[in-house]
Specification:
By secondary structure, the chain is mainly alpha-helical. About 70% of the residues lie in helices and about 10% in strands. It has 8 helices and 3 strands, in the order αααβααββααα. Strands 1-3-2 form a 3-stranded antiparallel β-sheet. The protein is globular.
């Protein structure tokens, strides 16, 4: 992989790059949270947990936390709220009573699907800021940066 001439030591944190990136993510999350709470009574974090659970059966809280790079305590609160709403089930592992197996309910799958559609509609304005070519480059750059940061944090 060719290294970019972009010098983070010169640009970070004194440059507006870091601030703009942080602010973009913060505002994106805030808009998504506001829409999801208004329309579906869930948060973006809870939606992400539901998304993971629709793809993994008998998931452990620890695995969800690791996948989202969050603490188990933070995930525990989200799981409890989802369980109280009947969107997930949490059962004790028969082989290890300290572990819980977490699964998405049918209602949870339905809420996830509806919430994803709502987010797509509400966040469409972002896609209008970039043409198709710019969006493709943006998505590719985000994927590369994400992989780089994940690899760094896992090393």
């Amino acid at each position: 992989v060719a290294m970019s001439k972009f010098d983070f030591q010169k640009r970070f944190p004194d440059s507006p790059f870091a601030y703009r990136l942080h602010n973009f993510v913060f505002l994106f999350d805030k808009i998504a949270d506001d829409v999801l709470q208004r329309e579906h009574d869930i948060t973006l974090s809870q939606l992400v947990v539901l998304k993971i659970l629709t793809h993994k059966k008998d998931c452990k809280q620890k695995n969800i936390a690791e996948n989202l790079h969050m603490t188990e305590g933070a995930i525990s609160r989200q799981i409890e709220r989802l369980r109280e709403r009947g969107l997930i089930t949490r059962t004790t592992n028969k082989n290890n009573r300290r572990e819980h197996e977490i699964n998405c309910t049918e209602e949870g799958m339905s809420v996830r699907e509806d919430a994803m559609k709502t987010l797509s509609k509400e966040m469409a304005f972002i896609g209008k800021a970039l043409n198709d070519n710019e969006m493709e480059h943006f998505e590719n750059a985000i994927e590369k940066l994400h992989a780089c940061v994940v690899n760094y944090t896992n090393s």
